[in-house]
């Protein structure tokens, strides 16, 4: 069975002073826009507060996939769904009550994502599968763009794919995804690919998205 492949560019390493222009360069080629929210507590970096993020979400011409790397995730995640994100991913390590937060996201009408840092096993969360619309397997330690893809995470991607089975749950990888690593992730079972520096460092970001997509499709068939 061939999986539908989605490419979700991260604007973390885009030119944030010209964000509208940067988003316009990639929106036609992208499935969703991946928005990294960092609070300088859960991760050692800061991106947008809720008000700045809301402006981006409201004006974005395509669906937004919010990746919340924040400590107070149970409180803030529903607000990201309310403001119009198509998908809201919380980190298991940051949440005090994973199930109730995933359910709150869904109740508002967004897809509920569960993110796992490299050191967190999928097996600890497999029993929550009925409350999850997407698993995010981090392929770097969250916090910064431009890091090296952790090949050793492919085993976890494979196990997650096996746990998902036939369910219509997306399996996202995030961190270091590029033309030299996307095949491996697709072959292991990922179907949603975040790419930050690979896209925004390319001369033609939208052509890069097309190339990444082609390569992933060829491995996922
Ligand atoms: C890292 C972020 C990623 C990052 C990806 O914590 O969650 O989304 O922007 O950037 P690249 O593709 O450059 O690793
Ligand atoms: Zn991310």
UniProtKB/TrEMBL annotation:
Fetch the Gene3D superfamilies from UniProt: Aldolase class I
Catalysed reaction(s) here are: D-ribulose 5-phosphate = D-xylulose 5-phosphate
* Gene Ontology BP term (one): carbohydrate metabolic process
A molecular function annotated in GO for this UniProt entry is: D-ribulose-phosphate 3-epimerase activity
Which cofactors are reported in the record for this sequence? Answer: Mn(2+); Zn(2+); Co(2+); Fe(2+)
Keywords, ordered alphabetically: Isomerase, Metal-binding
What's the Enzyme Commission number for this chain? Answer: 5.1.3.1
EC class: isomerase
GO CC annotations on file = cytoplasm
Protein family according to the UniProt entry = Belongs to the ribulose-phosphate 3-epimerase family.
* Record protein name field: ribulose-phosphate 3-epimerase
Source organism per entry reads freshwater metagenome
* Origin organism lineage: unclassified sequences, metagenomes, ecological metagenomes
């Amino acid at each position: 069975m061939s999986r539908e492949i989605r490419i979700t560019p991260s604007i973390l390493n885009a030119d944030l002073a010209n964000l509208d222009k940067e988003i316009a360069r990639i929106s036609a080629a992208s499935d969703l826009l991946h928005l990294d929210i960092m609070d300088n507590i859960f991760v050692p970096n800061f991106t947008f507060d809720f008000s700045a993020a809301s402006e981006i979400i409201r004006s974005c011409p395509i669906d937004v996939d919010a990746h919340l790397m924040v400590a107070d995730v149970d409180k803030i995640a529903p607000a990201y769904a309310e403001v119009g994100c198509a998908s809201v991913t919380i980190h298991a390590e940051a949440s005090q009550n994973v199930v109730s937060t995933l359910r709150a996201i869904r109740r508002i009408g967004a897809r509920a994502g569960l993110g796992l840092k490299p050191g967190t096993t999928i097996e600890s969360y497999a029993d929550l599968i009925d409350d999850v619309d997407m698993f995010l397997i981090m392929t770097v330690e969250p916090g910064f763009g431009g890091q090296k893809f952790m090949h050793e995470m492919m085993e976890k991607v494979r196990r997650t794919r096996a746990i998902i089975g036939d369910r219509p749950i997306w399996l996202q990888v995030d961190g270091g995804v590029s033309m030299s690593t996307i095949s491996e992730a697709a072959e292991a079972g990922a179907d949603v690919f975040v790419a930050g520096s690979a896209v925004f460092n390319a001369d033609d970001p939208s052509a890069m998205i097309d190339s990444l997509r082609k390569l992933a499709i060829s491995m996922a068939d």
